[in-house]
Amino acid sequence: MDGIPGPDEFRAQARSWLRTVAPARATHLEWGRGDDSVAVFENWTEDEERAHTERTRAWERIRHDQGWGALSWPAKYGGRELPAHYEQLYRAEESAFDVPRRTEIFPVTQQLVAPALRIWGTEEQKRRLLRPLLRTDELACQLFSETEAGSDLAAVRTRAVREEDGWRLNGHKIWTSGARVATWGVAVCRTDPDGPKHAGITVFLVRMDAPGVTVRPIRQMTGGSSFNEVYLDDVFVPDTDRLGPVGEGWRVALTVLAAERLDSGGLGLDNADRALDLARHLPRPLNDGERQQAADLFVRALVQRLIAVRVTSALAAGRAPGAEASVGKLHATATMRATTDLVQQLLGPRLAADTGEWGTFAWTEHLLGAPGYRIAGGSDEIQRNILAERVLGLPKEPKAAGR
Question: Cα(401)–Cα(332) distance, rounded to whole angstroms?
């Protein structure tokens, strides 16, 4: 730990630096002022999404260039080689300052794709892409899900056919966040249709502005279009943009998914904190049941942060996380449900009636959006299967006759 500041010293340094570059965020004493959005999925137009992305990108570049970005990464990528959990220490300090809120494309780029590239990329790919991704000069989205595959990623049908100096991709991806603003898409494709299901997959880095790539927004019930369909029609990808060995795409994808479940370690925590603030500022005393619910949510959020630190440590060391990634994903969705339950109890009808009162009706966007994360990143059922098979050693359930 020589040369590494202690946690308290590090937080003081972060706080001191943040004061020079950003105004303080409204404190609890100013409850009821400012933005009361608790949306899980944003309802922006494409222009609004692009504008917010550019504001956030500008902030991420400042962080990176002044040594507060890729904290646990090697110096050659702009990092400081600090312990992985220092990222959580920094985020705790940053939350007190008015900086652009990171939409999903940013953690996908910096915490999912960049670590996977570090593990599976060639030296040329690492040299060419890692620093731009960490600095957000370039952004990446996931081209994983398909309508026919459901939660079974290994059932992908998007085909990649080998050509002399590259690959030709054809297929359809869905539920892609950030596709409208991404530079790259990480595409899981089938390269061997005749081999075993998990062995015939390869992953590619696809330029989102390449000929044949079409992005179509999906309207969601909250009114916005955070997700997109992506069509790949005869898209050419040079072999230099293949990520990992041919046929090893399942292992590459698992690395990204483990990181996605790591990202779930922070999922919904801002809203959980906001719900606890609501409990503190409610214009009436909490009853016994509400106090119990608030205490339960506080503990859940604390445990969720601790799980995230464990998974972050594995990724920072260049290792694929183990079962804790699935535990973290399950815990995060449970925390989101607990947040909804507490807010419903505290607000009652004010949650559903748009009276214009700050911090009330805005919670409908959390209520409508949070259930989606029981599916995103691998459904709760998939996570339980992973834990049952890989931790408890239980056998897979045999298929019923005729299935």
Answer: 36
The model carries a pTM of 0.81
Token pair for 186: 């990480």
- Residue found under tokens 């794709």: 113
Q: Is 260 a catalytic residue?
A: yes
- Give the β-pairing of 166-177 and 227-238: antiparallel
Which of 104, 138, 146, 260 is labelled catalytic? 260
CA-to-CA dists, residue 158 to 109, 253, 376, angstroms: 22, 14, 19
Our measurement of the distance from residue 373's CA atom to the centroid of its chain's CA atoms, rounded to an integer in Å, reads: 11
Residue 86: how many other CB atoms lie within 10 Å: 21
Of 16, 252, 30, nearest to 120 by C-alpha is: 252
Instruction: Provide the token pair at 83.
Output: 């312990």
The three-state secondary structure class of 288 is helix
Q: Are 114 and 312 in contact (CB under 8 A)?
A: no
The answer to whether residues 175 and 185 touch, using CB atoms and an 8 Å cutoff, is: no
DSSP-assigned letters across all residues of 360-375: TGGGHHHHHHGGGGGT
Q: Is 182:140 a contact under the CB 8 Å cutoff?
A: yes
What value does the CA radius of gyration of the chain take, rounded to a whole number of Å?
A: 22
10-residue stretch averages of pLDDT, the chain, 403 residues long:
82 96 73 82 85 96 95 92 85 89 91 93 96 97 86 86 95 93 97 88 97 93 82 97 94 79 66 93 93 96 82 61 75 92 95 91 90 77 82 72 45
Per-position DSSP letters for 18-38, written without gaps between them: HHHHSPBPP-GGGTT-S----
In degrees and rounded to multiples of 5, residue 143 shows phi and psi of -110, 75
Q: State how far the Cα of 187 lies from the Cα of 168, in Å rounded to an integer.
A: 12
Helix (H) or strand (E) holding 386: helix 380-390
Q: Judge residue 14's burial from the number of C-beta atoms within 10 Å of its C-beta, 0-12 exposed, 13-18 middle, 19 or more buried.
A: buried
Q: Are the beta carbons of 182 and 208 closer than 8 angstroms?
A: yes
pLDDT of residue 174: 92
State the residue for tokens 């050509």: 163
